[in-house]
Amino acid sequence: MDSLPSEAEQHERIRTTVFQSPDEAVRLVAASLARLIRRRQDESRTAVLGLATGSTPVKLYRELIRLHRDERLSFRNVVTFNLDEYYGLPPHHPESYRHFMEVQLFSHIDVPLDNVHVPDGLIPRSEVFAYCQEYERKMLAAGGIDVQILGIGRTGHIGFNEPGSGIDSRTRMVALDRLTRRDAARDFRGEANVPAYAITMGVGTILRAKELVLLAWGESKAAILREAIEGPQTDTVPASFLQRHASCRCYVDEAAASELTRFRFPWKVGPVEWTPELIRKAVVSLASDLKKPVLRLRDEDYAENGLAALLVETGSAYSLNIRIFNELQHTITGWPGGKPNADDSNRPVPANPAQKRVLVFGPEPLDAELGMAGTLHRLRRHQHEVTFAYLTSGNLGVPDNEARMAISLLNELSVDRPADTQGKDRLDQLSDELEKKAPFDEDSPMLRQFKGLIRKAEARASCQVLGLDLEKVLFQDLPFYEKGRYRQFKSTDEDVTAIRELCRRIRPDQIYITGSGAEPGSVSGISYRLVTSALEECGAEPWMKACQVWLYASSERPWSPHEINMAVPLSPAELAVKLDCLFHHRSQRSQTPFLGTQSGESWQQAENNNRATAQRYDRLGLAEYEAIESFRRQKESEARTGL
Ligand code: GLP
Questions:
Q1: Residue 148 β-bridge partners
Q2: Average pLDDT of the residues in 54-77
């Protein structure tokens, strides 16, 4: 029996359970699917599962495969219907959902092929309508879907039901939203290659399933998830229609849940324990809501906005305001490596040692530059010994066209060097491959390596802009990435060992990394976990006792000042250096030019975020800067070092 929603969950219109990690969540969901399947086996009946694609359900499928392998769960009585398929892609296409399902699940279990249904992306246009009706009929004939697994897209879509999809919509052909296509651009090596249409079950089709399970991981889903769970039911957020279903459960990790009222404004939904962090959060959000600087908040402002309890605990607005103002003030520093010979009792970074060994991890080229190019530049100018380690080559993100250009350049060069036949052979092989290759064929190891070289060259050029010593710019080429592809990465001890050995060699005083809130299967999510494991393995070593680990922000979401432990201001000139550095990653510029300021290019996003953070500090009554890069202390490192 379901327990009743708690006081804290009162705003949630879909029952939501929050887990520390997706692993725990998928174990629970897989176990309940297994129970259903086994129960039906005992009754000689089928179990009908609605399946989804995308990164989100990958871990669930891995757990189902484990149950099949280790706990003899058979899928012989299972019938499946997939939510959707790209229109125009043949089933064997590496990005087709049919192919995805084969690789991620079907080929590892004993589900009979005849029981598996994925919409056909090659149905002639004139037959699509009849085909979709037939898809629905088959679902009904199978007895209807028992449990439908769902992910959520950043537009709020379920399946491919983009904003505008009505509650009664049925299986049909739809045009994909710009944001959805941009999110898929990585898989297709460029937005231009992403199909424009898809066939998807409708919202109405989905709501007919007996039970719905919505999964979401990572902070990039947090905002849209809040709208789906707490917002009004509206076709601008099709996932909000899930609120209508009597048996819909949502399973999320902490990062995806972070925008729900119970985490964002816990004091609005029940009694809270006023920790220093929560107090800072409450004061900052009160000041932001009222558009007032912190020091001008009055007792009445607190009392009239649900924060009377805070005043009871902390005294008057006057002393509370000063305390929080000072805390915010102390996060700001132009000395990210510590200020030598200065009193550091209120600074985020200790003064000693004056010259620090700094180790910066970039999951893929460009990630660290987006988050902290200005700070890297500063650290270097302040004479710290900066080692910048790119964990992966990022070769999957290089469009073929960039490779063609580089080949043409090298060919020109080799005209003058006829002796280099080996090099010429390699270039010819690469040209050949590119010429023969269908747009979505996988790259050979040689082409991947070549594309990796392009990204390394860009990375070095961008590091030079920041004044980094190229001898200390390292490319780790971690095996999980080199051997895998998006949504199919599998890390091993080899990856952890490489990071651990680097840390041991450098013995850093400071480490910078990102990805703590990223989708766990993404390159930065995996990289973050690998670095964390490597550091755990180094735990007992003396240098670790004083090593501060800082998290830098991704360009997805600017952090609010209450979440920031170190704010590094950038002058207009420093911001220009940062943009110059970012521009050198030219293969990462959008391949589909989009006019206007909202192009969503990652560096534009980073610039906007850095400016927005500065504005938020300014509005809270702190100094007005051009831009700010923000950092958070890693909790584990804080507990270990007390810094
Ligand atoms: C695609 C799929 C959806 C999926 C969404 C989110 O658009 N059609 O079914 O939920 O992407 O994908 P991801 O899980 O990779 O974030």
A1: 50, 212
A2: 97
